[in-house]
Amino acid sequence: MNLSLIDILIIALYLVIIIVGGFLLSRKASKNIQGYFLSGKTVPWYLLGLSCASSSFDIAGTMWFVYIIFVYGMKGAWLPWMWPTFITIFHMVFLAKWMRRSGVMTGAEWLKTRFGDDRGSQLSQLSIVIFAIIASIGFLSYAFVGIGKFAATFLPWELSPNAYAVILMLITATYVVAGGMFSVVLTDILQWFFLTISSVVIAVIAWIKVSPEKLKSMVPEGWGDLFFGLHLNLDWSEHIASVNESIASDGWSLFSVVIMMMVFKGILISLAGVAPNFDMQRILACKSPRESSLMNFLISIALAPRWLMIGGIAVLGIVYYSPDMNSGGAEMDFENILPYVMNNFLPAGLLGILLAGLISAFMSTFDSTVNAGAAYIVNDLYKKYFKPKASDKEYVLASYAASFLLVAAGIFFGLMAKDINQAMQWIVSGLYAGYAGPNILKWYWWRFNGIGYFWGMISGIAAALFMPKLYQIAAWIMPEVLSGEFSPLYGFPFIVLISITVSIAASLLTKPEDEEVLKRFYKSVRPWGFWKPVYEKVRQEDPAVEANRDFFRDMVNVFIGTVWQLMLITLPLYMVIQNWTGALISCIILAGTSVFLKFNWYDHLEKESKYFDSQIPTVKELIEKE
């Protein structure tokens, strides 16, 4: 498309501002690696929350969400559970404060607080570093595919999607490498305001251009219904017949079964806790455990405007892009819906602002992923194994090199990715399945040790990498039983079963962790679960220590919080499709769950933080005292 001069100037000005900002912040970030990767733990929780929300507001994910709302309608509001979106609620209720009570810099360093510093602990730390690096590269390749397709449609120069992706990744790398997390957070906040304004504008355009009656005539019966039965029961034959082929290809016709699988997978991943990515970096960068919980509360609210954009683009695509999609047949590309709408409905100037906002969505995800991944390479590999006594300046220089190394790897694997959906499904249903098993056990079972963690992680990662190949072999042997491509979602239970079985077996076949390590961890973090033997030993030394009896309170808050979060998705979607009854019901439920969480979660958090944040030292502080 041909952008106007004003559009090009707006995009160029935005890119110049964030690059210059990164270099201006470089002096503050380059004091030491804690300043570089955690901004010195000086940033307020609400800024970290906006930053994390902005990092989750990426182009590739937005394209995929547009697709699911376009095809599945209001039922698509359930499908983000594949990530799972409600992991933020688990973090908000209890896991973020548990993680922050460690006082460390990375997930690998956290494992030292749980398993000590013996051989098993060192192996466990190595396994999480491997996972973090693989996951970072996976997310970078996923972002590579999305930004390439987006830029090739919008930007006026005749370059390939891959060429655009490489250029934009390198531009983003310059400011994130220079400014570290200070640069990431401040630019993310700017990007969040761009994206929120963009979302409101697109929703308003959809309200003006598409009436409820017109939309209803363009979609199958049941498209606007949130709830469902065993089967999806959406028949697009009279509108866009080839959409039915996409539903069949997704394998989601048995919708109830799919959602149950997503909930099962989501609960396991959520119980495992924060993955070693930018979410964990934000939690560890908070000033206190209390602030880490509040930060995760804000993330869900800050992401709500995103659904105005997603719903608006989907609605405009259904009404105006359908003829083009019908002519495209079975080979149509749903990822072109977003570019089509932007190209055809936005005037000069406004298009430049929205393009800058969407490019910033890519950048905010990309910069956070690079910063988090580089922290593991520098802090848990370079510092620990190669230069344990180097100067702060050398560590910061190593951080620059690690960041560029991750960017190069993301570009390489992005060139090999087939599409956004393929990259996304492998990350959330394949790789994270291998992560879930051992990371559940580390929180809730005292007998779990570093050796068990290491073998559980390695077996899980291996299963995630080789499961598709094993499926192909099995399909070749039994073609009448297994047909079609391997679905990472359906492979999830098998990968989890392998990793958790190996984790338990390896732990029971080796000795428990040192008693002092377990007591120190329990006394500072105070998790609930199967910790009774450790609790009794801690109690003998300090009768004032009380067990965590909040399991049922936390589970109730997780359930209510998940309903609250779902309403933050359905409310903007109902508003876009102008279903005011649905919007009113969402508002009422949102208000009721908010009041419940105020009394049963927030008030309890405030009381608890007065005790923990002021009186109980972090695990790292206890280790340093010893």
Task: Report on the architecture of this protein.
- The chain has helices at residues 5-24, 26-29, 33-38, 45-56, 59-72, 87-100, 107-115, 119-154, 161-209, 212-218, 243-250, 255-272, 278-285, 289-303, 306-328, 337-345, 350-386, 392-416, 420-444, 450-477, 488-508, 515-525, 532-541, 551-576, 580-615, 619-625.
- It has 626 residues and is mainly α.
- Helix 5 packs across helix 15 (306-328), helix 8 runs antiparallel to helix 19 and helix 19 packs parallel to helix 21.
What is the mean pLDDT? 81
Shape: globular
- The low-confidence parts are none
> What's the number of helices?
26
Report the span from N to C terminus. 64 Å
Number of E-state strands = 0
| Rounded radius of gyration (Å) | 24 Å
Largest sheet: none
SSE ordering: HHHHHHHHHHHHHHHHHHHHHHHHHH
Percent in strands: under 5%
Helical coverage, percent range: over 70%
The secondary structure category is: mainly alpha
Tag the structure with descriptive keywords.
single chain; 626 residues; mainly alpha; globular
Layout of strands and helices, then pairs:
Layout: H1 5-24, H2 26-29, H3 33-38, H4 45-56, H5 59-72, H6 87-100, H7 107-115, H8 119-154, H9 161-209, H10 212-218, H11 243-250, H12 255-272, H13 278-285, H14 289-303, H15 306-328, H16 337-345, H17 350-386, H18 392-416, H19 420-444, H20 450-477, H21 488-508, H22 515-525, H23 532-541, H24 551-576, H25 580-615, H26 619-625
Helix pairs in contact: 1-9, 1-17, 4-9, 4-13, 4-14, 4-17, 5-8, 5-15, 6-12, 6-13, 6-14, 6-24, 7-8, 8-9, 8-17, 8-18, 8-19, 8-20, 9-15, 9-17, 9-18, 12-19, 13-14, 15-16, 15-24, 17-18, 19-20, 19-21, 20-21, 22-23, 24-25
